[in-house]
Amino acid sequence: MILFGQLNDHAYNDQLLGIPNRLSFVQSIDAVIGVGRKDDTIALIDIDHFAPLNDALGHNYGDMLLAAVTARLRESLPPEAIIARVAADAFGVLGNDSIVSPERLQAIFRSAFRIDNSDHQLSVSIGLARLTEIDGNGSDALKCTNIALSRAKEGPRGEFCYFVRDMELHTRNRVRLLQDLRAAFDQDRLFVVYQPQIGLATRRVIGVEALLRWRNDQGRFVPPDQFIPLAENSGMIISMGEWVMRTACLGLRKFQREGIENLRMAVNVSVNQFRHPQFLASVDAVLKESGIDPKLLELEITESIAMLEYEFMLGMINQLKSRGVMVAIDDFGTGFSSLSYLERLNVDRLKIDRSFISQMTQANSSQRIVETILQLGHSLDLSIIAEGVETEEQAAALHAIGCEEAQGFLFAKPLEVNDLLAYIKSTNT
Predict the structure, then answer these.
(1) 163-172, pLDDT tens digit by residue?
(2) How many domains does the chain have?
(3) pTM, whole model, 2 decimals?
């Protein structure tokens, strides 16, 4: 027979870690608000990339890691700080402003965690809310802190963000935009455009990059940097990304029927797509449905994706290469790829980030970075393409230092299918 004390323990404590759970944490916040303490701060600490780590190394390893984090928090924070597990890989901390500060919390994770006789370095994203900014009860306060955490996770991981009142309006707007995006996708109101990729020596179109666009009911374009992160965070990117790949490959088949042969089709792939267990199956299905030569499909992954755990990345890229599909690293130069890591990844192309191209004719440092990337790529027998080329001066400078390909507004903006066909026929004749 289960005693009341046991039921109470299960209701208010995390059974794995032996610390308060989310329900207990909300009650603690209620109690602090109830006695009028306003000099307290709530923090939500989210372990970056915990889910893939848990999947790769096993749930037992993940449990040991969570236990180590719990022990470190208890050791590092004073007894009056309330520590709780509020989600699978997220911890809540409640305490005085001087205790619950981002600097103090980030310092807790600077040294590696010893797990099963090996060191593991973690980064965390942190959302914080001062009770002076909160109107409402403990649930409201935790919701506001979670809004701050979501904002922190929008940028590079390992950041922190404090809640401010106008974030609630921003969040409501994001929810409304997400609802509109779902409706637009379900009702086929999204479409794909194609930006030409040019051989700098010949100025002929050698490839195109497929880009997703959204025109809303009012006829206005919604910028991709607004709706793509929403699709990423909501999981919609899986179905949307597969649809873009299918549309692009079927479009390539249409170009071939128009007499345009050997055109490369570049398609961006998000980290969520790449990690999805059915990703390779979706690539196979698209190749079969479109009937295109796999070597004409190039999947672009960002440098941040390429820096994920080595064995997983190597296996995925090798699987794609075994199908004949090419792989490019987008935004190259913005991350921290090592030469040995890049060499073993077996990719085909590096895409120089537009931020370096825009500055290369004004800043020597940017030109040196571009030259270094070119030397690195050529030493590994990789092709190089520069994005964001907007002036003849940039194009000439790139060609002079050995860059083979480029894309940008100098040559053409992203075009819809019929405009693209006309552009290619006028350029390649």
Answers:
(1) 988 887 777 7
(2) 2
(3) 0.68
